[in-house]
Design goal:
It contains 15 helices and 19 strands. By secondary structure, the protein is an alpha/beta fold. Strands 1, 2, 10, 11, 12, 13 and 19 form a 7-stranded mixed β-sheet that branches. The protein has a 7-stranded mixed β-sheet with strand order 8-7-15-16-17-14-18, with helices on both faces. It has a 3-stranded antiparallel β-sheet with strand order 5-9-6. One of its GO terms (molecular function) is oxidoreductase activity. This is C-3',4' desaturase CrtD.
Amino acid sequence: METESADVAVIGGGVAGMSTAARLQADGYSTVVLEQHHNVGGCAGYYERAGFRFDVGATTLVDFVPGGVGGQLLSAVGFEPPAIAIQDAYDVCLPDRTVTLYRDHTDWDAERRAKLGDDKQHLAFYDFIDDLSTRLWRLTRKDIKMPIQGVGDIVRNARAVGLRDLPLARYLRWTMADAMRAHDVYDDRALRAVVSMLVEDTVHASLNEAPLLNAVLGMTIHRTGLGRATGGMYGFWDSFVDQYTDISGRVETGRTVTGVTGSHGEFRVNSAAGPVHAEQVVSTVPVPVTRDLASTVVGDRLDDYCSMLRAHEGSALVLFLGVPDTEVEGHERTHHQILQAYDEPLGNGNNMFVSVSAPGDDVSAPAGHRAVMLSTHCAVEPWQDLDRAAYEEQKGAAREQLLAGGRTVYPELGTDPVVSEVATPVTYEQFTNRPRGAVGGYKQTPANANQGAVPQDVGIEGFYLAGDTTWPGLGTVACVKGSKVAADHVRS
């Protein structure tokens, strides 16, 4: 058997892994991506069933516009984007009103004044969030690195931030609840619900836990441009992989890594198909998985981070439906966020996101049909150690809860489905090897985000981390951002 080798072996073909590999391949390094599944994408991937292609996690691409974080990636590697439809708006459906989150700032400002309040306190809060959002998205698109690990990082960040944005540091210990209370709007039920929903979806934490700066970025992603490629994540990855292999990058799917040994210049990445020898390694699978795979490489350097992640883990429930057009027609928008009850905790169907493939998108669904994904957050613990009967009962209840929420927008949804399948933490543990089925990153708090986050460099020359359990955390835009930091370490 011919020995496989590469300058850099990337473990995991999700957003962080593919982005890191593409950056390095375009920069002259030979790279290989080792992905256990039969296609790439990870938590922004897809699966196929009965002619439908369903997004398994993320259903939108954030900031894949010219100059955005995703747009910068495509430009840096010389890739042409696939056909991505940028959403002008999506609806947040509350029990007593619908609030439309417009991308256009003038439209959004008019909407929030009309639906969420326009007194002095509300307007001051809106201005505060707008100012922070503008500054933070500008910085996100620059060369920021966290956590700060030395003088070089201080210099790098100082150049990116500049004097005008340096005062933002005073908010590093604030939560979103602190900001709302400071502006005397926390007790506004509808406003608090909308902010809570947006923060939970992006930061995975409550208002009292969510770091203000991270939460502001999360709750304003609609302003950056939420995009969906034709064919959803399948369409995006089909285009991305084609262009990556065109520049001689290699993707080895169906190849589960079983261990990593060695040191800088002579790493050995093992799998059933044989080893890959690499000068350097970037692991983009979850930190606890990395620790287990590379125990002789990392030693105890990841132990404290793994404990932190375990204490802040979360997961998701998703209902995948393949349905006739008639069940979802009659709506201008294809994305909806739904709150079923103000007074119930978020998650488990109360705060759910509904994504429907576009009319005429025959890549996502057979002609005359649509792919529908209904997702919500959930805790990991209630899904552990269930017997078969208890698990099926709990999964059935989750299906009915998600379907009931979806029917508040689409009353006929799921009445005659071609496909109807539910994913739970058990599903995610089985198919992704994520411990306990914890997906989507961890709940961010002031203690474990930013300066407290898992760094890409844990002090092992030639061995680096990226992905949604490292800085900057959750979502496609964060994984793309983190890939830049990981690639910089490889180059240094």
